[in-house]
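Lab notebook page, bench 4
Experiment: in silico fold of construct C2
Operator: M.H.
Input chain length: 344 residues
Purpose: comparison with the prior construct
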Amino acid sequence: MTNKAFVRLLVLLPLLMIAAAGVYLFTRSSPESPSVPAEVSLSSKPQALVPERVLSPVLSFDREKIWFMTEEGKLFRKHIEGSDPPEEYPLSAVIQNPEGVLWPTDSKDFIVVSTLDGHSRYLFFDATSSTLAPYPPTLRSPQFLPGGNKIVYDWVTQATHELKVSDARGTNFTKIADLFRPDYELLASPVKQEVALWTRDLKNPSKLLVVDLFTGKFRALGTNAGYQGVSFSPDGTKLLAAKLGDASGGPPRLVLFDLLTSQARDLSLTAEIERTAWQEDGQALLVGSPAGFIKYQVDNQEQEEIYKFGESEAYSPQNLILHPQKPLLFFVDQKTGYLYRLEL
């Protein structure tokens, strides 16, 4: 290095040190930018688990598969994970015009609902013999009782409607009571020997009724009203009801009845009963709509939006299923009938 170059270096060195110090002070005083991962997922998106129209999906006993029926009357099961195709479970007869399936909570038997000459008809599937047998047409609105080996139903004659209990095949029956009107709909408790009765008739409304199947005693809830449907909590201590407003056709309001105190609470939410699902511990409810999903805490009455559909997600969710162990929600899109899986 020449003397001239060395002198230039001595002159520039302090200037370089001052510039470096300025850069250091500026970067230290500026707010730090967050590190951005290569892929950022703001939220999960619904994934089509079964991209065809399905009826009455339900989780299997091991919670690893979903059973469902197709419009062609075929029964399938599909693993909730992976992309494997659905596996058909062959039935002993072809189901004509299926409406859906009634599943027990603790039995492999089930009831198929179909349409014949404009009326609902019911067929019992015996899992032991793998056979389908039709119930008499006078047996209507069957519901499995806890244990899955008995059903409660409306027995219809030309002049009367009787509430009866029998074995799952419809034999060895016992009459519980006469029904006051012909249009009651039925839902059995998942854990108690009780059944809820309600009507949709707004011109001739009725109170919600809960019938003790041991004693035949009727208990009335709320005021006279029409109800779109009801849903028992998993422990059987509460009853969610979708209360119809008037003939204008607006969505029903959700009302929660405490079956221990007979007290009612308006949830300030509107939805058909098919757009709701209980959390397995009964501490919360999920309510779906074309806007997304809301979680309602039963104890403190708090509401939380847990998923909001994006502008490109034009879903109308129904048949909601909450997985009891995993943060998964399954639902059927009312428009397409497809079954979707959503990670919460």
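Observations: Helices lie at 3-29. The chain has a mean pLDDT of 88.
Next step: discuss at group meeting.
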